[in-house]
Each structure stands twice: as structure tokens, then as C-alpha cells.
């Protein structure tokens, strides 16, 4: 019983901290930002731990994936993707993005492309277009959807929201078994964290202005 009370108190404390932090930001939007960041941090740390463990197993005990260059990191991309299903270059890991984000005053302007590997009817891609402004996503909107009906609906939605054909590439198929954009210029996982960071910045600036 005592443990349940402690857990409930912890939950209430965490909720209050999150509620205070979000300020005037809508609860659902805030949850989207936070969960996105938590997920990105998790996969970054998970990948780092996996690669470091494999390197140390070969005798390279001082290896730290977070500190090597992106060029040097390319050596293990294929094997890691086969095992983990994804790959993040060192410069795009959460810990390194976090270090650089505070010095980037133009997060929205530096965004190059948006990618959703399970895009459905395109709601997340259109959310990016609405929040960032489609003109700020320089290289366009990319996605893949396994269901043929929602795939077609996504393409229609792009046109309905005035995103021209040359600005999007929506593919049909299973991203896990047959990724269609694999041979394109590598997608920067950093773009997701830039979007999240820039929108929290905007929300804080709005809160300051309104008060």
C-alpha cells in the first residue's frame, strides 16, 4: 500500500512539473513535443549503447560512438541497420543535438526536409507544413504508407493543402521491409528535434509576450 501511495505521489509531482513547464501551450501539443523528444532520446541512447557494446567486445574499450565523426561512423551503417532497423549519425544523436540547439537561433530556417515513415493520410506532414510554413521546408515532404487507400489519400491531401507535386514524395509500401527512400540523400533525424525545439521556443516567446 505504501508503494502505491509513493507511486501516486510521484505521478502527481511529475504531472505538476510538466503542467507548470507547458505554461500556455495546449496540453495535447505539449505531450506531442515531450513524447517525441523522449522517443528520440531513447533511440539515440539505445543505438549508442549497442554500438559501444559491440566495439568493446572487439577490444576497443575506449570507444564512444557519440564522439566520433559522421564520416567514421559510416563504416557500421549497413550492419547496424540490419540488426536495429535504423541508424543515427553521431552529430544527430540526442546528446549532440541538445548541445548545439541552444546556439542555433534559426532552427526553422535550417530545416531541410520532413519525413514520416508511416505517414497514413499525411496529418503529421501537414502539421509540419502548418507550424513551420511549407516554404521553410526547403527539400520537401517525404513519407511512406503501407495501406493503398490512405497512401492515395495522403497524396490527395498534399494537393488539397497547396503542396505542389515537386515538393513531396509519398511512397507506397512497408517501410520496415521495403523502405522506398533509402537511397535518397540521408534523412536527418535531427530535423525532428529541430521542429520540437523550435516550437517550444516559439511557445515560450509567446508566453513571455502575452505576459
Instruction: Calculate the terminal CA-CA distance, rounded to whole Å.
Output: 43 Å
Whole-number average pLDDT? 76
The tally of structural domains comes to 2
Largest sheet: 3 strands, parallel
Structural class: mainly alpha
Strands side by side in the biggest sheet: 1-2-3
Helix content: 55-70%
Give the amount of beta strand, in percent: 5-15%
C-alpha geometry = globular
Total beta strands: 3
Gyration radius from CA atoms, angstroms: 20 Å
How many helices? 8
Q: Helices and strands, in N-to-C order? A: HHHHHEHEHEH
Concise account of the structure shown:
The chain has 211 residues and is mainly α.
Protein model, in words:
The chain has a three-stranded parallel sheet with strand order 1-2-3, with helices on one face. The protein has eight helices and three strands; from the N terminus they run H-H-H-H-H-E-H-E-H-E-H. The radius of gyration is 20 Å and the shape is globular. Helix content is 55%, strand content 6%. The chain has helices at residues 2-22, 27-57, 70-73, 77-84, 94-101, 123-133, 148-160, 190-210, and strands at residues 114-116, 141-145, 168-172. By secondary structure, it is mainly α. Helix 6 (123-133) links the parallel strand 1 (114-116) and strand 2 (141-145). The longest helix has 31 residues, at 27-57.
